[in-house]
Amino acid sequence: MKSKALLFLVLALITGVVGFTGLAFDGIEVIRVMFLIFADLLVISLLAKLFFPEKPKLKYQPVNK
């Protein structure tokens, strides 16, 4: 989820532009609901990045006998 923030940003922008620019067709409410879903997922993924940062990768060291 944390790596999908850019994807959710792009999807929210596209659906926001299509849904709220005054276009009129039958499925406009579906587009607006998709905008709300993508915007919520964007906020959740950004909060996940803020509160749960990536852990540094561990280096394995050989054991000397």
Automatic annotation (TrEMBL):
> Lineage of this protein's species?
Bacteria, Pseudomonadati, Bacteroidota, Flavobacteriia, Flavobacteriales
* Keywords in alphabetical order: Membrane, Transmembrane, Transmembrane helix
The protein here is known as: DUF1328 domain-containing protein
Q: Which residues cross the membrane?
A: 34-52
